[in-house]
TrEMBL record:
Residues 5-59 form the HTH cro/C1-type domain. One of its GO terms (molecular function) is DNA binding. The keyword Nucleotidyltransferase does not apply. InterPro entries: Cro/C1-type_HTH (IPR001387), Lambda_DNA-bd_dom_sf (IPR010982). PROSITE patterns: HTH_CROC1. It holds the Pfam family HTH_3. Keywords: DNA-binding. This is Helix-turn-helix transcriptional regulator. SMART domains: HTH_XRE.
Amino acid sequence: MKNRLEEIRKKRALKQDELAEILQVSRQTISSLENGKYNPSIQLAFKIACYFKMSIEEIFIYEGDENGGKGE
């Protein structure tokens, strides 16, 4: 899943550790999210969206599953 978290965070002049403290996660979690190495739980995605006053879809871009969207 791609995301715009780094872009949005930088526009707000926030450091990774500052955002991590606000969201009550580690800085490594923020880094992994931004690098696409980690997909957030639905709770964390909602926390991020609420903090930035955006929808989840504005931040996280779902690209379908690995089977081309066939569901099997």
